[in-house]
Amino acid sequence: MHDLMIRGVHPWKPGSGDAVDIAVDAGRISLIAKSVPETGREEWHVGGRLLLPALADPHHHLDKACLVGRVGASTDLADARARFGKLRPNLTPEDHRQRGERVIQWAISHGVATLRTHADVDKTVGLRHVEAALALREAFSDRITIQVVAFLPASAPVNDEESWRALADALHLGCDAVGGATGNRGAEAPTLMRRTLELAEKAGGMVDLHLDETLEPAVQNMAELARLTRGYGLEGRVAASHCCSLAVAPAAVRAEAIGLAAEARLHVIALPLTNLYLQGRESGLRGVPPVAEILAAGINVACGSDNVQDPFLPTGNADPLLAAQVLGIVAQLADPDFLLEAVSLRAAHAMGLSADTDWCRTGAPACFAVADCGPEDDPVARLAPRPLVVFNGRVVRRPGDGAHDLPPIRTSQQEE
Ligand SMILES: [Zn+2]
Fold first, then answer.
1. 407 falls within a domain
2. What digits encode the pLDDT tens for the residues 350-406?
3. Residues 152-163: pLDDT tens digits?
4. What total of structural domains would you count in the chain?
5. How far apart are the CA of 61 and the centre of ligand 1, in A?
6. What is the CATH number of the domain that holds 32?
7. Range of the domain at 319
């Protein structure tokens, strides 16, 4: 008897043809065949639905999530930072836990197996946001892999040594990466990038920077980030999130930056939802990096949710397929395979994890989601619900689970 059987499923991409049965044992796929005669302790017949690889969401801010009701929606990035800044000093661990749990449970219900969150670190909040994120990482470790980025917020001066000591402490506490924001730093941006990379190099961690989250054409830090990445020998371990102003750089500047980024094996993480909401209020420009050009240079491009119902974005539901669909529209990419990869295999790669394109094979970790659509459908276009989600062999969402915080819907004939 197998631990788990999923019957009648079409794995996304690996070959086509008939539906298969997938057996899972000890957290891994143990057998894939047209028809598996043995039974499973838990069995699901999914009627020819599409099986998606584990989704990955490479950019969240759980410390900010679900605060829009308290502070209202913002008008631009500076306003959003100011609104969050008022609450920041007084957020309790319990408050962090409750809001974080909500969003993580939403993510799990969408089939997200890996989620990266940026947690503010500076002398105002110290390590409180990091500690809250690490506690969530631990509490949910049997249902989702969470990565924590120790993030120096835009409001913290680059030369504040107390904040840098706190960032180093955060990495010692177990943060996976270090980050900060360059967009508003002006001439200090290179110092921020250098010190961030220096910390990561010493601690053996990764880097994930909010790079140039602005549409000011003169703000262009990608080329310097690429040079520094090679200088510190961190190729493949540095992610550049946002990269909005690259879209408005002169063509020659853009080409040089993208060429250097490819050599440094930077990962680019596009965050269309928040950037479309906050950027370009005056100019009408869109805040999304030139994805087609970046991809053409061979750079790994991923996509993430960023903010969820907070001062930075009043909407959002932690479904990376929504972010992928919007990216496809705003970046004018008619490539359904890329869009799904951007929130699964490519996003995992950007987070330093395995991005095995052969994800559905015997011996692979059993991390996947059944989409409520057929093999010919585009799950991103349909935002197909994912009623069955498996994380390392454990079923973490079952059909009928519905919203995690509400009782199930019943007919009036069912018992109270
Ligand atoms: Zn962010």
1. no
2. 999 988 888 999 999 999 999 999 999 999 999 999 999 999 999 999 987 766 667
3. 999 999 999 999
4. 2
5. 6
6. 2.30.40.10
7. 55-350
CB 328 within 8 A of CB 334: yes
d(CA 33, ligand 1 centre) in Å: 42
- Is residue 239 domain-shared with residue 324, that is, in the same domain? yes
Together in a domain, 30 and 129: no
Alpha carbon of 67 to those of 58, 99, 116, 130, 310: distances in Å? Answer: 21, 8, 19, 18, 5
CA 395 – ligand 1 centroid, Å: 30
Q: How far does residue 116's CA lie from ligand 1's centre (Å)?
A: 10
What per-residue confidence (pLDDT) applies to 415? 58
208 CA from centroid of ligand 1 (Å)? 10
User: 210 C-alpha vs ligand 1 centroid, how far in Å?
Assistant: 6
**Domain annotation covers residue 410:** no
Ligand 1 centroid to 151 CA: how many Å?
Answer: 9
* DSSP string for residues in 259-289: HHHHHTT-EEEE-HHHHHHHTTTTT------
CA of 363 to the centre of ligand 1 (A): 35
Which pLDDT value is given to residue 18? 87
On whether both 237 and 363 belong to a single domain, the answer is no
Question: What is the average per-residue pLDDT within 12-26?
Answer: 88
